[in-house]
Specification:
enzyme regulator activity, 2 helices, alpha+beta, 6 strands, 112 residues, 36% strand, Alpha-Beta Plaits, N-reg_PII_CS, 4-stranded antiparallel β-sheet, elongated
Length: 112
């Protein structure tokens, strides 16, 4: 099993969710996060005053998938979240040893 964490632009969340649902990903966790990468924030002007925004608002999408659909899930996220501009985000893939469903005690892929 793999855990896929994707940091994406907030306005692309629905597109990413729909892309993952099309490949039959059952569940996901979404969090509002802030951070920066290579772009190191940006400046904005409000009422004539310029100020620095250091942390950019993003969405973090987490899904756990069986090994056999990992590449499809990564590709679906990339296709839905890519704009070609700085700040599109990152995808992190990690291997999971076990997953346990609290309600039933099911383990492994049966718990997904």
């Amino acid at each position: 099993m793999k855990k896929i964490e994707a940091i994406i632009r907030p306005h692309l969340l629905d597109a990413v969710r729909n892309a993952l649902q099309e490949i039959d990903v059952k569940g996901m966790t979404v969090s509002e996060v802030q951070g920066y990468g290579r772009q190191r924030g940006h400046t904005e002007t409000y009422r004539g005053t310029e100020y620095q925004i250091e942390f950019i608002p993003k969405m973090k999408v987490e899904v756990v998938v069986p090994d056999d659909i990992e590449e499809m899930a990564v590709h679906a996220i990339m296709k839905a979240a890519r704009t070609g501009k700085f700040g599109d985000g990152k995808i992190f893939v990690t291997t999971l040893d076990d997953v346990i469903r609290i309600r039933t005690g099911e383990r492994g892929e049966a718990a997904l």
